[in-house]
Each structure stands twice: as structure tokens, then as C-alpha cells.
Amino acid sequence: KMADVEVLLTGFEPFGSHAVNPSWEIMKTFDGQAIAGFKVASRLLPVVYSAVSTQVPELYKEYPNLKLTIHCGVGREGQLKLETLARNTSYCHKDNDQTFPSDNLCVKGACEQYNSKLQLERVLKEVKSAHPDMAVDLSTDAGLYLCEFTYFTSLHYGYCPSLFLHVPPFDKPYSFEDLQRHVRGVIESVILHGGISPEQADPSSSRPKVGLAVFIRHHDHPGKFLLGKRLTRHADGNPTGLHTYATPGGHLEYGESFAECAKREVLEECGVELYDVSVGMPVNVIRTEQNYHYVVVCCMGVIKEEPINAEPDKCGGWEWHSWDNLPEPTFPSLIEAKSVGVNPFP
Question: Does residue 261 have an active-site annotation?
């Protein structure tokens, strides 16, 4: 059953000079197995940009309870590489269909780079200790081809931690059996030492998080409040609300009052001071299918200057909107707030 799968592995079809792609030949051998107590499934990916853009997000829908995804591709001779990051731009090498993205982007409107949230330095140390005959290292260049394109897509849309692993061609220097053993060792080490949090390992047992939404008013914009389009996922990697319109806000920090949190978030995100802060009702935002549960406290306040986009990597820019005509797509907490009768204009 797809719902039972906890670790998803992918490899690629043959391409270019690689008549046999070791990434898939190795990864498919683990399909249906249990590794470090986690049930594994393996899926083949095409070396086609448009297909990867569609298939990778769909995989996260097909497998609703993943704790980890590891993508694999063929790399340089001599060693395995744990890729630490993926970039969004400069994809200009033709795929198996002789095409590449017209804008050279992986995900339009997304940030420039995602970093893996796994503890890869610790994983590397454990792998080298357990497999002294394995040549393996960290890498910050996944190649700006289908490997890195897939990695960025996965980091963007995935709800669980992911890693891209580059393996050398067969017999350069490892035989099929040795490479299989080394890849299994990497998978085990990522599961055991990669820092998969309890929340990611068992979403149903995690506690709801506390967030805060700030409804900002300005005397030059009567009847309207401030919204911006989110460009990033939540800090824990959850993509809920990505590319939706939301108010300024964020997590309540330890020891903060609601008003202190509201003022801090507005200053960080909008570059202005918040005045006349009032605390409204909380809303309970639950999206179990996305492993998302937040209690969001609604605060109201006034600014005396026009806001600036102080975090352009996280927000597409600030706009004034009316409560009766919210832009779409809309952030879940705003939808919930409106449904329970929150009034940003007391």
C-alpha cells in the first residue's frame, strides 16, 4: 500500500552516453524492502524536464506518509556525492526530448536556492565510519541538469526531508554489488542519523504550532489591509500556503507576548513600526492531508509609513486589499479567519 511507504527512492532512465543508468539499476533493487525499519518504494523518473515537473509533485500526493525521499542520479567517476543544495535557475542543457525550460527556471516564482534540511555532515561522518572502503563526500553542485532540477522540485513541493545522491558509473570504481551495498549504507545512515524529526517521522503525534497573523491598517488605505505573496515554505519544510497571499506574521517565540511578536514580525518583514496593537480571536487551522496544524492568533495594528518588502526572498511584495475581496490563492489561516467571523476593522 502506498500509505505504508515511508521512504521513497527514485532513479533515472538512460540518457546520453549512459545506456544503462546505475541510479535506477541500484534503486529499483530496494523496492518493497524495509531499510532501518522503514518500508521503501522505488520509482523511475524520465530525463525530461516537463515530466519531472509534473511527476515529482504527484509522487508526494501518491505517497501521503513519507518520512524521507532520496533521489539518485549518475555522476562523476570515483565517488558518491551527497548534494547539499539545489538551485532554481540556469537549466539550459537539453533533456531526452531535446528540450529545456524556456525561462531556464525550475519553479517560476520560487526562491533562488533550497538547502537540504538533513544533517548531512553527520550522515557523512557515519557513512565513512561504517564504510571505510567507500569514497563519499558532500557537494554543493548537483550539475544544473535533470538531477538538480529534480532535487529543487522535490525540495519545493515535498512535505518531508529529501536528499539527492550522485553515484559513479558501474565499475568506476565500484561493481554493481559494491555500489548497491554503499547506496544502502547511505540510505540507512540518512534514516538513522540525518536528523529526521519526530514530527516528520510521525505527523499524527506532533503538537500544533502557534503562529500569529497581523492585520495591518494605514490611514491612506481606508477599508484595506496588507497582504503579500509567500515565496517560501514553512521553517519545517511544510509547503502549505506556498505562493498564497498572506498577512505579515510568523511563529510566536519563547517568552514573547502576542503584541511583541506582532511588532517584531512587522518590523522584520515590512521595515516599519507597528502601533495600536490589539489581540483578536485565534483560529484553528487544520489540514491533516498536508500534515499541517496551526493555532493562529489574529492581531490588528496600524502603521504610519508605507511598508517595504524587507524580505524579498520570502515575499513577492506588499499590497493593500479589502476583506471582502481577498486575492487568490489565499493563505489557509486567512480562509479560516474569514469563515469564523474575524473582523480586521474593529
Answer: no
